[in-house]
Amino acid sequence: MNPVSWRQSSYCQESASCVNVARGERDTIVLRESEQPEVILTTTRTRLRTFISAAKAGQFDHIDGAGR
């Protein structure tokens, strides 16, 4: 993977655990958590947009540890 320019929310505190996002190769989006930057997830704009919309709509509010 080519070097990426990571961005993080301006709401993220200096000592907080934050999600970083960057533009990846071939129209992908890459994500990482600031406390484990070596773990990188890759997705597409469409899938990330769908996930964020579902989270905002509360679709994950009542999921238990078994994924239900």
UniProtKB/TrEMBL annotation:
It comes from the Bacteria. Pfam families: DUF397. Residues 5-56 form the DUF397 domain. InterPro entries: DUF397 (IPR007278). This is DUF397 domain-containing protein. It comes from Streptomyces malaysiensis subsp. samsunensis. The lineage of its organism: Bacteria, Bacillati, Actinomycetota, Actinomycetes, Kitasatosporales.
